[in-house]
Design a protein that fits this description.
The complex is a heterodimer of chains A (364) and B (230). Chain A is of the alpha+beta class. Chain A contains ten helices and 19 strands. In chain A, the strands form four sheets. Chain A has a six-stranded mixed sheet, with helices on both faces. In chain A, strands 12-11-10-13-19 form a five-stranded antiparallel sheet. In chain A, strand 15 and strand 16 form a beta hairpin. The two termini of chain A are 18 Å apart. Chain B contains eleven helices and no strands. In chain B, helix 2 packs across helix 8. The longest helix of chain B is centred in the N-terminal third of the chain and has 34 residues. Classes of the chains: A alpha+beta (364), B mainly alpha (230). The interface between A and B is medium-sized, with 22 and 15 residues.
């Protein structure tokens, strides 16, 4: 993989408050890098700096092919798509052509490129329509066509689908993923939605408070979060503090508030850790059920404290040596006749537990 | 009532006869006000754009100054311009007092804040993110500004209409700095004042009708242009 864009020692401050702090970040050619994080994490700032629209307080953002490029020449190597389509008044065709006209591309080439990208985004039939008469989904397709037809080295997208209804968003997300794969277009995509990140991203960066907590391929971010914040953000609801008390055959034994649980991983005796467990990895049995240790090594007697429906699943909050959350299917909950106050056995595999060292933090 | 009908009849006669003095006064009014409007736009559009799009500590103060200027009384402008252009004044050597150019200067001072202030308001009505989007599409600063002007063309045209309207109809400044000299600086508004003061209501009404028709035609043309490009 070759690097397309590099960020070094980047600091962006507003009124003496650091809102973005990235010691290093490389965007590889042909990859879709998704930066995900909550509101106010610094995602849009990162995008604006990468687009050459915001001057960093310190540090450098540059294309590896031409590190000296700045100003308008830099900006013209990038195109951007924002949450709001921000179309100009006039026809769809004129809007898609606007970036090419700024670059003074000749009119025949503009016509060809606009036709090509309208076709790619299935909006050829809208060519002569006024932008004021477009639906939200159509407007965002025009916005995407306008960015793609510039055929820049890098496309930046700032939550492009977050204002759309769910079916339109799902459809556009699928089409965008296909388009990015087909064209090999390098893209930095910013969102607060993890599902969206997993759908389009080759690599995912998790940004909190202006710092990149983890940058990895999508599967690793999801399964092996590096900080408790990332774990919570990617849907790990059980983050149990404990201490390593034993090691044997790749298994780490952890003492967590009186309960000894086992996890697959590395550790040092005496080390403080967080044991991370997804609620969907917890299986519930009625109290007194015999469950073999070979099925799952961790057996925790609990009492149901609270339960509520969550679509086809039931979220169950449990009281034990530490609070635990489980997700079970509705038929399972009904079959077991689960109810608040009932005693159950929570069972989970040692491979389902992911360990994070306390205070562990590594910036990428 | 008799005067009004007489005035209308006389106006029709004057227009049909093509009275050379009336034509001269009308053309001078149109010329002076058009030049003043164009200069106001040339100055007001860039200044309004700068104030609308930039950020600096005293920006609000300057926007307030421009907005105050929109309500500047023409007689005050006439007084200030007279003081400057008076023979013993700072610009007396230019010998501009009681010339059409003195009227142009006074009318520019009246209409320029109008053009600037309405430009600020027209550009501030646009989505502020549009500017970032245009730059993100590779627009240069100049291309970005022209695109914003294009997006705000309706309110900007309104600024042009308001600027022209404010000068074609003002009388105080034109009277003070032009002197209402026959054959030289007499424009429609000052001629109306003169005819009224002489009790020549019929002539005053005739000139008023011409002024109203002129103002209507110019505004109609600008409005057609404005709505056509909508």
């Amino acid at each position: 993989m070759t690097a397309l864009l590099e960020i070094h020692d980047l600091i962006v401050s507003v009124e003496n408050t650091v809102i973005l702090d990235l010691p290093e970040l490389t965007v590889n050619r042909n990859e879709v890098l998704v930066v995900v994080g909550p509101n106010g994490a610094g995602k849009s700032t990162l995008l604006q700096v990468s687009a050459g629209l915001l001057k960093p307080t310190r540090g450098k953002v540059f294309f590896t092919s031409d590190p000296q490029l700045t100003g308008l020449d830099y900006r013209r190597k990038v195109s951007t798509v924002f949450q709001s389509p921000l179309l100009l008044s006039g026809t769809v065709r004129n809007n898609i052509a606007s970036g090419l006209k700024f670059r003074q591309v000749d009119s025949e080439q503009i016509r060809q490129r606009v036709d090509t990208w309208m076709e790619q985004l299935h909006i050829s039939h809208l060519a002569r329509r006024q932008t004021a008469h477009l639906s939200g989904g159509e407007a965002q397709r025009v916005s995407l066509a306008r960015a793609f037809c510039l055929e820049t080295e890098l496309i930046l997208m700032d939550e492009p689908f977050s204002a759309l209804d769910t079916p339109t968003r799902t459809e556009l997300l699928r089409e965008l993923r296909e388009l990015l794969s087909r064209t090999g277009q390098t893209c930095i995509y910013v969102t607060h939605d993890l599902q969206e990140a997993l759908a389009v991203g080759d690599r995912i960066g998790i940004l909190f408070d202006g710092k990149l907590h983890q940058l990895d391929v999508a599967a690793n971010v999801f399964k092996r979060p590096k900080t408790p914040e990332v774990a919570a953000f990617v849907g790990v609801e059980n983050i149990i503090p404990g201490k390593v008390i034993g090691l044997s055959n790749e298994l780490v034994q952890i003492q967590a508030n009186g309960f000894s649980l086992e996890a697959v991983g590395d550790g040092v005796i005496g080390q403080e850790v967080y044991a991370c467990l997804r609620p969907e990895d917890v299986t519930l049995y009625l109290a007194g059920t015999e469950v073999s240790k070979s099925t799952a090594r961790n057996h925790l007697p609990c009492r149901i404290r609270y339960m509520f429906n969550q679509g086809p699943l039931v979220r169950i909050e449990l009281e034990a040596d530490f609070p635990l959350t489980a997700l079970v299917t509705r038929p399972s909950a009904e079959e077991m006749n689960l109810a608040v106050g009932k005693e159950v056995l929570a069972v989970f595999k040692s491979t389902a537990v992911h360990l994070i060292e306390t205070g562990h933090f590594q910036s990428f | 009532m008799q005067n009004i009908f007489e005035g209308i009849w006389k106006a029709i006669q004057l227009l049909l006869q093509g009275d050379p003095e009336v034509i001269r006064i009308t053309l001078l009014s149109l010329q002076v006000s058009s030049i003043a409007t164009v200069i106001s736009l040339v100055l007001g559009l860039p200044l309004g754009t700068f104030l609308a799009l930039s950020h600096f500590p005293t920006r609000r103060f300057w926007i307030s100054v421009i907005n105050t200027g929109m309500a500047l009384p023409p007689v005050v402008v006439g007084l200030v311009v007279s003081i400057f252009l008076w023979r013993s004044g700072p610009l007396g050597d230019l010998h501009l007092i009681y010339t059409p150019w003195a009227i142009v200067i006074a009318q520019v001072l009246i209409s320029f804040p109008m053009a600037g202030g309405l430009t600020i308001s027209a550009l501030q009505q646009l989505d502020p993110r549009l500017r970032v989007q245009l730059l993100g599409l590779g627009a240069s600063q100049i291309q970005m500004i022209f695109s914003l002007w294009r997006e705000a063309r309706l309110p900007l045209m309104a600024a042009l209409i308001a600027a022209f309207g404010s000068v074609i109809s003002e009388v105080g400044a034109s009277m003070m700095v032009g002197g209402n000299l026959k054959g030289s600086t007499r424009v429609l508004t000052t001629a109306i004042v003169l005819e009224t003061s002489r009790g020549e209501f019929a002539s005053a009404i005739a000139l008023s009708l011409i002024l109203l028709t002129l103002a209507f035609l110019v505004n109609f043309a600008l409005t057609v242009l404005q709505q056509h490009r909508k």
